Amino acid sequence: MSIVLLPLSYIRWHCTTAWRDLWRLYTNLSWFIFNLFSIKLLATTLFSPWHRLNEKKAKGSAGFLGKVIINTITRFVGACIRIVVILTGLGVLILCAIFFAGVFALWIFVPFVALGCLYLGVHGLFTTFAS
């Protein structure tokens, strides 16, 4: 490839392929975070007992009442822990979305920053040798 075609190739890549790759990176990272925190699984099993801890069948009314209380407590503890994990996962997903929104917004200005750096470098080079 000729050095003359390099800027045109960069502009074509920057405006087409790079946007697709950035979007694919965002969707892959979001999918990973969603599955890392098991958000769907935890939401579907929200009121299941924590670690399947539950009382076995007991005889008598006192045993039945104790079983109901223990099972309710384990379900409540399980729901609280699952809610915390779900909210943490959703928070990380929101932070990821905010980060990538910033990346997408800044990506537009990358060629201008590159041109500015090139200008400052060439300008600094000539002013150093001129003095």
Structural write-up:
α1 packs antiparallel against α3 (60-107). The chain is rod-shaped and about 100 Å long. The protein has one domain. The protein has helices spanning 6-36, 39-44, 60-107, 110-130. The chain has 131 residues and is mostly helical.
Please supply descriptive tags for the structure shown above.
4 helices, single chain, 131 residues, transmembrane helix, mainly alpha, membrane, transmembrane
Number of strands: 0
How many strands, what sense, and barrel or not for the largest sheet?
none
Tell me the helix content.
over 70%
The oligomeric state of the chains shown is: single chain
Q: What integer is the average pLDDT?
A: 89
Shape label: rod-shaped
The figure for the number of domains is 1
User: What structural class is derived from the secondary structure elements?
Assistant: mainly alpha
Strand proportion, as a percent range, falls in under 5%
| Integer-rounded radius of gyration | 28 Å
Transmembrane segments: 29-50, 76-100, 106-126
Keywords: Membrane, Transmembrane, Transmembrane helix
